[in-house]
């Protein structure tokens, strides 16, 4: 039974990877069979093929490794085995490279290729994920020649990506700051930039909260012991909250009781769990859960408006398809969809 | 439930681990046999481990973006890195490389010098010594490094979302899926992925410990 020990001693790594890889290939194939209607899934399937290709390489690697090792049947002769690994790996790598090259069209994020589909790349703030996924499904159903590719992230990260030349046709930001910066750098098509949506700053309490909180002013009361806010240094929602309380003249009292979160979602979680008596978040956050209750909305003029601007990038300025999609976003029906997620129209 | 983040994660981290395995070993051997300037090279190679991943991602984005010389040259020959799964592999390789490299280097440096000298007196070439003395003796450390770098690649988030973006079905890995779900308030979806990540990472680490434990007992 020496060979079993050899396998145990030397080959558990390749074996583990082989197992993972085989599982991956099997599942990838199964997945491909189930759903290949939408283009993005097809792209994924072709990706999966690329992957299984790589796996074959790693299979080969494992196999040749096994052969060599059992030939050598000893602990010391690793040189031949490792050589074989190196060689088959290199072969696998070039193979995969060739595949990628040929599969380029379906693989890269943007191309108007022979498949007749136009791919539009939209960079959207992460808070827009759910509503954008819904709109993508609806839009693609009615526009069969267009594939919408969304990438989500913080608005600041998306700004950096556009600045560094990532392929993008449309930018949907959660704040005017990033949009203005890109417009000033001439990276946006100036005329297309629109202030599409507004989010409201609201005060929320736990759904089962017992404290008597009905307005922003109540937070100065002694009964309120701890308040969840985004850190005004880095979180926009915290900056808006600070403005509201400064306007009301109670910022010092509130600050003394404030627990500062690193993002607005953290604040929301605190309120949901009842860790804080109340918190300041956006209307869309409050609408995403039924475990919090909205008790007040920041008054008009007590803080800057939270506006979501959208615009076409300078490099996509000539694309008719993206203009059509932008018009679609501005349509009444779509704005109603946004409203169902807690956004408001810009007056 | 859409399982594509799982396959993308596995595909990316397996490819990345295969690449870090060889580059990590080569660099570890090269550095451990260096005589001067070792500490500088070592610090440079370990840098991605201590830098915040978003900084690494930002740097990679600048490097591979179309505004840079390299990015421009690559896009001329039709290679795209930004917003592709290959980009995610690059991000994962860069952040998981130091793990592999440091573990392998420690393993190489732990090899008994006398055995190496003995091999040399028998007339073995440097290459043979590497494969017949260093690799077998350092194998537990190398194996542990491989598993850890796989785990690191699997959990990679910051650099990935900067370089490869967050394209559902293309570059959205499990970690990125959790981020997206949390940001859009989709808690259940986030929990599902968190559970899956924990299970996979746990299984990988447990398997690694099990096998290395057995090896030591046999030796």
Topology:
The complex is a heterodimer of chains A (347) and B (219).
Chain A: H1 2-10, H2 12-34, H3 39-72, H4 79-102, H5 104-107, E1 118-125, H6 129-142, E2 146-153, H7 155-163, E3 170-172, H8 176-184, E4 194-199, E5 201-206, E6 227-230, H9 236-248, H10 251-257, E7 258-261, H11 264-273, E8 278-282, H12 283-287, E9 292-297, E10 306-312, H13 320-330, H14 332-340, E11 344-345
Parallel strand pairs in A: 1-2, 1-3, 6-7, 6-8
Antiparallel strand pairs in A: 3-10, 4-10, 4-11, 5-8, 5-9
Helix pairs in contact in A: 2-3, 3-4, 7-8
Chain B: H1 4-32, H2 38-50, H3 53-64, H4 69-76, H5 85-109, H6 113-121, H7 126-155, H8 158-163, H9 174-183, H10 187-218
Helix pairs in contact in B: 1-5, 1-7, 1-9, 2-5, 5-7, 6-7, 7-10, 9-10
Number of domains of chain B: 1
Order of helices and strands of chain B: HHHHHHHHHH
Task: State the share of residues found in helices of chain B, binned by percent.
Answer: over 70%
The rough form of chain B would be described as globular
Describe this structure in words.
The complex is a heterodimer of chains A (347) and B (219). Chain A is an alpha/beta fold. Chain A folds into 3 domains: 106 residues; 121 residues, D-Maltodextrin-Binding Protein, domain 2 (3-Layer(aba) Sandwich); 97 residues, Periplasmic binding protein-like II (D-Maltodextrin-Binding Protein, domain 2), CATH 3.40.190.10. Chain A contains 14 helices and 11 strands. In chain A, strands 2-1-3-10-4-11 form a 6-stranded mixed sheet. In chain A, β1, α6 and β2 form a beta-alpha-beta unit. The longest helix of chain A is centred in the first third of the chain and has 34 residues. The radius of gyration of chain A is 27 Å and the shape is globular. Chain A starts with a helix and ends with a strand. About 25% of the residues of chain A have low confidence. With 219 residues, chain B is mainly alpha-helical. Chain B has a single domain, classed as MetI-like fold, CATH 1.10.3720. Chain B has 10 helices and no strands. At the A-B interface, α1, α2, α3, α4 and α6 of A face α1, α3, α7, α9 and α10 of B.
